[in-house]
Amino acid sequence: MADDSNPVALIMIDVLDAFFAPGKPAYYPDSVKVLDPCRQLLDKARERDRLVVHTVERHRPGLADFEHKKIPVHCEIGDDQSPYVAGFEPVDRPNEVELAKRRYSAFYGTDLDLLLREQGIETLVIAGVKTNVCVRATVQDAFAAGYEILLVKEATNSNRPHLAEASLEDIDRYFGSVVSLEQALERL
């Protein structure tokens, strides 16, 4: 049974073709390992009518973007990298929203914190890619904003496994809790 005294939301990070579709520049073969756990989390959150926030990369085509100083152009609005992985699109219900982001952290330059606070959310179950980049940046900012963080180990990974493992260790030690899929499903 879920603990409704501490409201929880599911934050899905970048479940987009850019990372999961073979042939796309950000694709890596192990990315698909997180899809089943992410699907289970999404199904449970919908079943329990939890807030689900789909945070997705959305860069503006043809305009300068500071992120592109470090990594190649990707996930421009309307390009072939930006679509959701099939079956992970937001559904039409009030508790499910898309939040576009232009930086690694879903909190930077967005209204995510305002949205969560308006809904009384205190705990975030976080899943998606990549552990050492967008996931870690989001977790770190969530911690700084005072949220309880549950990062689902089976529902995140990276094309740099050693950095993913180091990030999981740091997140568990300094920012939140790295939990099993089973623990996250119970919390939702």
Automatic annotation (TrEMBL):
Pfam families: Isochorismatase (PF00857). InterPro entries: Isochorismatase-like_dom (IPR000868), Isochorismatase-like_hydrls (IPR050272), Isochorismatase-like_sf (IPR036380). One of its GO terms (molecular function) is hydrolase activity. It comes from the Bacteria. The keyword Coiled coil does not apply. Residues 9-183 form the Isochorismatase-like domain. Keywords: Hydrolase. CDD domains: cysteine_hydrolases. SUPFAM superfamilies: Isochorismatase-like hydrolases. This is Nicotinamidase-related amidase.
